[in-house]
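Task card 7
Instruction: Convert sequence to C-alpha cells.
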Amino acid sequence: MIAARPVLVVYRSRTSSSSSRLLRFAFSTAINSLSNSHKLRLSSLVLRAPCRFQGQFSKLRLQLQHLNNTTIRSSMTSTSTSPLLSSPPERLVERILSGKEDDHGGVIVEMTTDPFDPSLFVSLLKASISQWMQQGKKGIWIKLPIELVNLVEPAVKEGFYFHHAEPKYLMLVHWLPSTINALPANASHRVGIGAFVMNKNNEILVVQEKSGKFRGTGVWKFPTGVVDEGEDICDAAVREVKEETGIEAKFVEVLAFRQSHNSFFQKSDLFFVCMLEPLSFDIEAQEAEIEAAQWMPFEEYAAQPFVQNHELMKNIVDICLAKKDGQYAGFSCMPTTTGFSQKNSYLYLNRSDLTGQ
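Output:
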C-alpha cells in the first residue's frame, strides 16, 4: 500500500479582506497537517525562492518556525534515504540578495517594500556577503525603503553603516576588502542662489525676509534660495525670483560663486550670484516668507551699512556694478549632453571672451 503524500498548493491573488482571512485559515490548517519532514521541505523551498519573493514568503516562514532545533537536527542527521532530507542544513540558504553590479566593483541591492522576516534577511545577507567576498566585490550598497526599517539593526550588526537618508529610504553601505575604504562620502555641499535683477531704471529687486537671521533687521537683500534636487542653477534662480516677488524673469549669467564650509549640518555650501533680466515689473511679495519687496535704486542698496560692513557683500556689489557698466562678463549657460549617459545638462561659460563678442 502506497502512503499518501500531502500536497500544499499556495495560490496568491487579489482578494477581499474576508476572503484573505478564509485563505489564511485554510493555509494554516494545511501547514499544521504536514509531517515534520514535509514542513522541513517546505521551509527549504521558501528559502530557495528567488529573493524578490522572500518578503512575500516571510509570513509562511514564521509559521514554520515552531519546529524546534532538536527536531531539525535529528531530521537532518537521520539515516533515511528520502530525497526530502538529503540536503545538509547549510544548503537551506542557497540564494543571495539580488543586486546589480556598479561601475566600481561593488553591488547595489534595492529592497522592495514587501514585508521581510529579519532572521531570514540575516541568513540571506550572511550568505550574500560570503559570496561577494569570494567574488572580490568591494562596496555593497543596500537601499532600504522606510517600510523595512526593522532590517536596519540586523544589517548594522553585519558591518553596514548609514550612508545617506531620503524621505522614503535609507542607504546602507559596507566596504568588504581589508584595504582603506574608498567609497564616496555622502553629498558634501548644499547649493544656493542669489538673484541680481535690475530694470532699465537701474533699480534692483530686493526683499526683506520674515524669518531667518535677517528677520527684523531692516536689511534689504537679493532674492535667495536653495536649488532643489534635480534642478539646474539657472532654473532655480528664475523660480526663486518668481516665488518671492511674483516677478517673471529670464536667466542671463552666473556672475560669481562663493564656497563656505560647516554651514548646514556640517555640510559645505555653494552660493551662486546670478543675473536675471526682468520680464514683468509688478511685485507680489510671497506672504509666507517675505515681509516686503520693492525696486530699489542700486546706489541706495549698495549704501546699506550691512553691505558696506561686509567684505563679501561689497565684492558682490562691485561685480554687479561692473556688469551694469559693461565692464564684466559672467558665465552664461549652454545646453549640452554628458559623454557617458547622454543626459541633458548645462555648461556655464564666458561666451563673450570665447567668441570675441
